[in-house]
Amino acid sequence: MEEVDHLAHERSKTQFDVAAMKIVWAGSKHEFEISDRVSRLVASDPVFRKDNRAVLSRKELFKNTLRKTAHAWKRINELRLTEEEAWELRFYIDEPAFTDLHWGMFIPSIKGLGTEEQLQKWLPLANTMRIIGCYAQTELGHGSNVQGLETTATFDPKTDEFILHSPTLTSSKWWPGGLGKVSTHAVVYARLITDGQDHGVNGFIVQLRSLDDHSPLPGITIGDVGMKFGNGAYNSMDNGVLQFDHVRIPRDQMLMRVSQVTREGKYLRSDVPRQLVYGTMVFVRQYIVFNASYALSRAVCIATRYSAVRRQFGSQDGGIETQVIDYKTQQNRLFPLLASAYAFRFVSEWLKWLYTDVTQRLQANDFSTLPEAHACTAGLKSLTTTATADGIEECRKLCGGHGYLCSSGLPELFAVYIPACTYEGDNIVLLLQLARFLMKTVSQLGSGKKPIGAISYMGQVEHLMQCRCSVQSVEDWLKPSIVLEAFQARAARMSVTCAENLSKFSSIEEGFMELSADLVEAAIAHCQLIVVSKFIEKLQQDIPGKGVKEQLEVLCNIYALSLLHKHQGDFLATGCITPEQASLVNAQLRSLYSQVRPNAIALVDAFNYTDHFLGSVLGRYDGNVYPKLYEEAWKDPLNDSVVPDGYHEYIRPILKQQLRMARL
Amino acid sequence: MEEVDHLAHERSKTQFDVAAMKIVWAGSKHEFEISDRVSRLVASDPVFRKDNRAVLSRKELFKNTLRKTAHAWKRINELRLTEEEAWELRFYIDEPAFTDLHWGMFIPSIKGLGTEEQLQKWLPLANTMRIIGCYAQTELGHGSNVQGLETTATFDPKTDEFILHSPTLTSSKWWPGGLGKVSTHAVVYARLITDGQDHGVNGFIVQLRSLDDHSPLPGITIGDVGMKFGNGAYNSMDNGVLQFDHVRIPRDQMLMRVSQVTREGKYLRSDVPRQLVYGTMVFVRQYIVFNASYALSRAVCIATRYSAVRRQFGSQDGGIETQVIDYKTQQNRLFPLLASAYAFRFVSEWLKWLYTDVTQRLQANDFSTLPEAHACTAGLKSLTTTATADGIEECRKLCGGHGYLCSSGLPELFAVYIPACTYEGDNIVLLLQLARFLMKTVSQLGSGKKPIGAISYMGQVEHLMQCRCSVQSVEDWLKPSIVLEAFQARAARMSVTCAENLSKFSSIEEGFMELSADLVEAAIAHCQLIVVSKFIEKLQQDIPGKGVKEQLEVLCNIYALSLLHKHQGDFLATGCITPEQASLVNAQLRSLYSQVRPNAIALVDAFNYTDHFLGSVLGRYDGNVYPKLYEEAWKDPLNDSVVPDGYHEYIRPILKQQLRMARL
Ligand SMILES: Cc1cc2nc3c(=O)[nH]c(=O)nc-3n(C[C@H](O)[C@H](O)[C@H](O)COP(=O)(O)OP(=O)(O)OC[C@H]3O[C@@H](n4cnc5c(N)ncnc54)[C@H](O)[C@@H]3O)c2cc1C
Ligand SMILES: Cc1cc2nc3c(=O)[nH]c(=O)nc-3n(C[C@H](O)[C@H](O)[C@H](O)COP(=O)(O)OP(=O)(O)OC[C@H]3O[C@@H](n4cnc5c(N)ncnc54)[C@H](O)[C@@H]3O)c2cc1C
Ligand SMILES: [Ca+2]
């Protein structure tokens, strides 16, 4: 096979320093180096190969993931990887596995909800994987409304134990990853009952399986919830179902940082504020935003490279056809997604900072920024995961028919990504939470309470309600202050309008229910403003590397202006811009697309993804698409024989008109 | 298992005659009866059972489909089904299979492109399935641009044969359904070459496999292109790859209705106009629109029923929670999709009429309506398939976490549906075609040529450019004439603006490339207007049944007003409505949602889908969701054993800290 870079010509057109952009994308030189090294390590290890995941049976797929997980743990120990490196290693293996929940939910929950003693007992076991844990909250009948959970944990003062029980079918735990087949332990959420009184939902550490032979402990029924969306994808995860039949655990396995049950069965609340749990949620959700930028950038990388390889139409008399990336419709669909990938990366960087800031304040007993941080993280989780899920599917469509093949990598990327719109908070429920926060902020505006954090723009609400956009020419739309003000004005006006309309209802609750669709739109406007503003702030920093800042400025403008166009209804309805100004947005966008075009391949190269991680024939670094597509096709089991299994029983009798006689 | 209708209370609230609505949905009493009878026939036949398709291997899945196909053919003959009934039977089996292409593309292509003689020779063979055919147009390197195909058919006057050849890798046929493993014949599109001259792409009937033992004929390489998106889904279809190495076929296997090659190798064009082929495209695409209404209504049926079963939040002290269908955000996402399903059904009914009309005119040598019919069908194919693909995924999200399980039916429905956005014309390419037609229409407005058909509103362009929407109250938005005029004005203004902007470019072609994103938006506006207007026209007919027409009026208004809200940017930017009028749309929508709410379940019951066809635990008629979800889970192969395969090799060594020693 020839070793040609079919995209070399594209790469030769690059107008910026790709190596420098790689560091900007990674966050820092340090982070770049780790991810570069670890991703290559994974890519070069035969155990981590991804091939033919789409044709494996459920059992083969699952066993294969167990194999990779064990191998990863072996390598992490052999190479004495740091925590950060180990995290990256698991990430680049790129298969959902029970370890995601063990490291990402089980351990953090104990850290967040356990007492000092409990941490000392459980963390050493979990950190060395002598126990494996999962996070068992959701039930068959109860998801978003955690307060509605039915599982009970009843204190028995006689034995100093809790009795865990599943009173109904709908109280079965359902969905927890890692539960179905692997976890030995779980953090289980259940209604705490002492002396006949229900104290609401609390967390408990529960052992599920024998550490000797892995069989479920007495009174415990566990299984897998069955196949989920897609080939490979999330089916390597054992999302599980779990029922308790009066299962006893020692009292000290209730997570007691926030509330306690004494030996006598007394329920006490500690002075630790309940909001502490929000800290963990901010952590998990900022990580989800970070992942959104990964998933979207992968899809964009595939679609961009393939769009430069694919040619269609535009040739006079049989000459070479036009690269589809040169069509403005293709650019108009693709480049805003490219810009979004960068935008989400930068907003997630900021969220990481926000989380650190919140944590430090909590340690100093300063809870003042928590509600805003919590609301804004919830909103950004919703915004970025929805946009990423839709964006991956758009990238697939951008690849025409070939995007529908598993070998394109896009079907699996979509299938594995989409539950991010649902887990850790259904995206609509999260936007409604943010909307409540927005309405509260608006209602307090008169009271002298100054909005802080990402919502501080509301402090200038009077200006924002009546400011007029000053754009007069196409170029004016490149001014960050103008763009920012338009987004602020739109967000502020939508929130204020909602608040005004709410006040017309006899009860806020009734109004909130009735106007919830408008409230969701106001919340989205607020989130988009945050992403735009963090991108703009990023560009106010020093960014080294020839042409790097210029490219990012183009992307920032594309991100903002494509949103402005897509949501021009909001901007026009609130009078933030005029129809003439809206049409100038379109003209500016076309010019921005032309500026990105020669740099498009380099901008996706800057993600620094290995072909292993991309897992896509269409997205190959060398653009050698067609021979590889052809090669992949022949690997399908259906091609094992020329004449298919079933020919004699089912095809031949049709052709030979023998069906009346045949017994099928 | 108890036999309770968990949705009985919902059904008792219905305000219209469901039986009458079923007939409206089906199109007529006759069509209702056939589809009712045939769908039950399929549902009750054990061979057609759908269970566990998600866990079958590719080979098992494929063989199972062959089995169903053979059984279907047997039943069709035994029961002496009419053509219409046979079509329905295959439809309700609900698995993509080679027969789709045999009946839907191979036979129609021969009918469309063959001479009288050729029909007489080939149709009897195909109609009795003594041969099985597919449609081989697309190549590895060439899809949308059919004129770019590379396969050659070179006439050899010495032997009176064509030599079919694949000169390059990219010229391999790629994608044709039924090709990979089953078809004995194909209509192959190839460049016709006589005497060294290239006459462009023509169709040929080519035998691919031996009728004795099914092996590919000499010079022919065939295989399957490999796994496609999703579990089950389109993987029951053998989309194929095909290469010719100088394969000879008799001259009379060129489809010669439109052009001929004589015994001497002379290329002739018959006097049959080339536009004839458009007729076939109109036929295929109207069928795709029809299917869109099926696919979308299925998803909506599942999401609606489950939304009435699912409860979340809203209970004071542990009482029963609120049905999620009562949340306005849920309604705002779901009910416009319900309305779209009905809208697409009615527009497809109209397209069926249009096709008949066009065909009759063609027979009378009247080609006048063909370009408009062709453009409008292309646009509607694009509009409805895009909306349906997005709508299915939205329905899945509306079901929260459980929608992600294969047992919900929604993942497979999505995966099997989405290629409709790509095949039979990429949706963006189709909109650009329609846009060309729109621009041509606008450019001819001055010339006295009156626009006909669905674009006749352009005849009133002067009025539409300056009319002002008269809405003053929420109720005004219920007036069909007002809604219609707003949509007409928006579509006309967007087209005219595009045309004006185009004229500023030095060449139309350059302008068309540059402005293509705007042109696509104009084309969408035109298509939405057509769907709205056909829904309104439908309501001007007599519609029997208590309350039926009233419900349809509500749905029609929801369809139109939800689009108006979603695209309010267009309406505001073009000055068709004012911001105040836009906000009245929202208020009216909320009231319409309340009117649909009590009838929602009955409106999806009216689709008359069997549980077999729906294939969804969440969408069950009786709403008995939870026990069935639970039951399904245990069927997963991973649940065959309590301790999973791989425990001893890969889990135990981790827990027992033995990994350094273990060989994985
Ligand atoms: C792949 C996957 C992995 C998961 N992993 C875990 C895990 O490890 N541990 C665990 O405990 N759980 C896990 N879950 C469960 C997950 O957290 C829940 O699915 C999620 O919280 C959503 O809840 P739900 O499924 O009950 O949706 P529902 O809340 O039932 O949502 C159904 C619909 O109702 C709407 N809705 C609900 N409430 C409101 C409201 N108040 N207002 C308006 N609309 C509303 C929603 O928007 C949605 O459209 C996982 C789920 C998935 C899919
Ligand atoms: C499941 C499935 C079944 C199929 N069955 C058959 C079959 O039975 N027989 C058969 O012959 N074929 C079949 N096909 C092939 C199908 O017809 C093609 O995939 C389809 O025509 C799209 O062409 P493409 O894949 O080349 O996409 P491309 O044209 O390569 O599209 C790639 C991208 O380029 C864009 N683009 C292309 N041209 C332009 C333009 N002029 N302007 C702007 N943008 C442009 C598109 O919008 C898209 O975003 C099937 C495909 C699938 C997925
Ligand atoms: Ca399989």
UniProtKB/TrEMBL annotation, chains A, B:
Q: Report keywords, A-Z.
A: FAD, Fatty acid metabolism, Flavoprotein, Lipid metabolism, Oxidoreductase, Peroxisome
Offer a single GO CC term for the protein.
peroxisome
The residues that the entry says bind FAD are: 138, 177
Family matches, as InterPro entries: ACOX_C_alpha1 (IPR055060), Acyl-CoA_ox_N (IPR029320), Acyl-CoA_Oxase/DH_mid-dom (IPR006091), Acyl-CoA_Oxase/DH_mid-dom_sf (IPR046373), Acyl-CoA_oxidase (IPR012258), Acyl-CoA_oxidase_C (IPR002655), AcylCo_DH-like_C (IPR036250), AcylCoA_DH/ox_N_sf (IPR037069)
Q: Which cofactor does it need?
A: FAD
- Tell me which residues make up the Acyl-CoA oxidase C-alpha1 domain: 278-439
The main location is other
Q: Where does the record say this protein resides?
A: Peroxisome
Q: Which domain of life is it from?
A: Eukaryota
Q: What is this protein called?
A: Acyl-coenzyme A oxidase
Which organism is this entry from?
Protea cynaroides
